[in-house]
Design a protein that fits this description.
CATH class: Mainly Beta
Strand content: over 45%
Radius of gyration: 17 Å
Strand order of the largest sheet: 1-5-6-8-9-10-11-14-2-4-7
Number of domains: 1
Shape: elongated
Order of helices and strands: EEEEEEEHEEEEEEE
Distance between the termini: 15 Å
């Protein structure tokens, strides 16, 4: 028996956590970025997940918070950071980020999803480990921006820049 479960922002959160690097790193904010529009489809065969597809609308990117830095991040600074992120992700040209996994295997307390991640039109093999108790799913996966042609944002001639590796996280409730 096969079935499909749909998830989106009403079921949980899909976020990106960034770091900062460079000589002036202590002056920069580590961001938490969320998306208002994303959809995940989990296909099940005999009550076990067999495929996963996630699509994220890049334009729905929001800067949720910024930690660190010399001063707390203000709303106008979050707006500027959002515009910089959209520019780095070439959102006007590549409006969607996708992850498709057709190889789903049971792992300790969850599943290993082996598939393809596409960012800025570049596709690369990617593996995501998630935990799941059947009612919830959560996981984190590091992604190196430069692997997908994304130039991490920088300023002050590179003295402050977004770290190349970001962490993508998902936490959602699965409705049956």
């Amino acid at each position: 028996m096969s079935r499909q479960v749909e998830l989106g922002p009403d079921h949980g959160a899909l976020t990106i956590r960034t770091g900062v690097t460079g000589k002036a790193a202590r002056t920069g904010h580590r961001l938490v970025i969320g998306f208002d529009r994303w959809a995940a489809a989990i296909s099940y065969t005999d009550d076990a997940p067999s495929a996963v597809r996630v699509a994220v609308d890049v334009e729905s990117l929001q800067v949720l918070s910024g930690e660190g830095g010399l001063t707390p991040m203000t709303a106008p600074e979050r707006g500027v950071a959002r515009l910089n992120a959209l520019k780095s992700l070439k959102a006007s040209k590549f409006g969607e980020i996708t992850f498709t996994a057709d190889d789903v295997t049971a792992a300790d307390g969850g599943y290993r999803l082996v598939g393809t991640l596409t960012i800025c039109g570049m596709s690369r093999p990617h593996t995501v480990e998630v935990t799941s108790d059947g009612a919830t799913v959560s996981g984190e996966s590091p992604v190196r921006q430069t692997d997908f042609g994304v130039k991490p944002y920088s300023l002050m001639m590179g003295a402050l820049k977004v770290a190349d590796e970001v962490v993508v996280a998902v936490e959602a409730t699965i409705s049956r």
